[in-house]
Amino acid sequence: MKLLIDMNLSPRWVEVLAHAGIEALHWSQVGSRNAPDTAIMHYANQNKLCVLTHDLDFGAILAASGAETPSVIQIRADDVSPEALSGALLKTIRQHRQSLEQGALLTLDPLRARVRILPLG
Length: 121
Hints:
By secondary structure, the protein is an alpha/beta fold.
């Protein structure tokens, strides 16, 4: 599984994820800083990437489109830095890897993770 990190998260996530054996790239490496979320979703879908974001719009896009991919991991926390969330995120990715590879919306907050299989209905 490869991750595409949205602009609203630090590029430092790339290194943290790589250190854990997860391939990732930051949107700033491949796209325009002001690209619409739909462009990011399209790129992720075309390149078989899972989107990591702090933006709730990605879940809305999945719901409105009825899409089965790409998977999206939404972080819902005040502190979205790798220092604050890397442990919880890595644990959650390991636990839900199969769902993410098949198509899922995973929401992670400091207390729990929720997974919804795609398409959202």
